[in-house]
Amino acid sequence: MDRVIYLDNAATTRVSEPVLEEMLPFFRQTYGNPSAIYTFAGEAKKAVDRARAQAAELIGAKTEEIYFTAGGSESDNWAIKATAEAYAAKGKHIITSKIEHHAVLHTCEYLEKQGYEVTYLDVDGDGKISLEKLQSAIRPDTILISVMAANNEIGTLEPLAQIGKLAHENGVLFHTDAVQAYGHIPIDVDDMNIDMLSASGHKLNGPKGAGILYIRRGVKIRSYIHGGAQERSRRAGTLNVPGIVGFGKAAQLAGETMEERSRRETELREHLIERVLAEIPHTRLNGHRTDRLPNNASFCFRFIEGESMLILLDRLGICASSGSACTSGALDPSHVLLAIGLPHEIAHGSLRLTLSEETTMQDIDFVVDELKRIIERLRAMSPLYEDFMKKGKNNG
Length: 396
Description:
Blueprint: E1 5-6, H1 17-23, H2 25-28, H3 39-57, E2 66-69, H4 72-86, E3 93-97, H5 102-113, E4 117-121, H6 131-137, E5 142-146, H7 160-169, E6 173-177, E7 196-200, E8 211-215, H8 230-233, H9 241-279, E9 283-286, E10 296-301, H10 306-315, E11 318-319, H11 335-339, H12 344-347, E12 350-354, H13 361-380, H14 383-395
Parallel strand pairs: 1-11, 3-4, 3-5, 5-6, 6-7
Antiparallel strand pairs: 2-8, 7-8, 9-10, 10-12
Helix pairs in contact: 1-9, 3-9, 4-5, 9-13, 10-13
């Protein structure tokens, strides 16, 4: 394999050089536990405080509203389960959408077994929730609305500000899983009335195993992990100082480069989408045409199986995905694609390509050229495609 073209940045990203350099001293030189009181540990505490401020600044939060976690899945679990526990006296009704990440969906399913009621909102063909249906779903016993900022499979952006406004007008807390959006699109927790927000470092050129949960001051949720007084007694466990430092640096860099990075990724994304739709027949774009993450392009190709397509792309050094990395290897089609109305036979032929600042126009053109050959090859072996073509000729 001469080269690797990595187009699975929604699954994880490369740790950037500046982030790695920022992290390295905290493995062997400044390795003190920031909870200790001696001077040597104080240097680690200063670094954690700096990272907390960097993480907060990216979303317009206060520094003390940021809590470090092990990643997005923990943050989602914490936000939803702790809210359910803390506000159970008010009610046991939660609202979410059918296209959430499984960290949200499985948590809600767990709570249903504990006596909570969950409303799963439908989405339209682009993957957007209906604000009218959201309004209708809110009840006097509703305690939480959890809707993602951007979908991890199809890239569609949800109307966060309008959701937050509805939530607060009805006295309901609003949590958003912003794992795919944090550092990629502008988010302001005050302007958008967001009460809790989940993010993960490895989606923005930071380290794996480091995330945050933003909790608005005044939100009365309790600890999720017990055992110590770390994170203002809300999240026990010795702090992952190198990971936290890396998260903070990644957040800082993401904020500084967001505008230019978004412009460039959008340009590459549009070139990719236009070529695929124009040059590969019987293809559909998944997600909203323009109101989507700058780096996300998701397609479905009729008459093929996505797994075969991924294997052939891999042989060419092209790293891609058929959807969420958390469900790779599953035989069932994506719950997201089914929720936007695609039948099983079309959803099985999905491909997600997610770009980065390292992606070039030459990369895009090479991938599209090879993808055309792969689709043609796979369709040539498909009896369904053969029948489709015969019917077309007979009807013609």
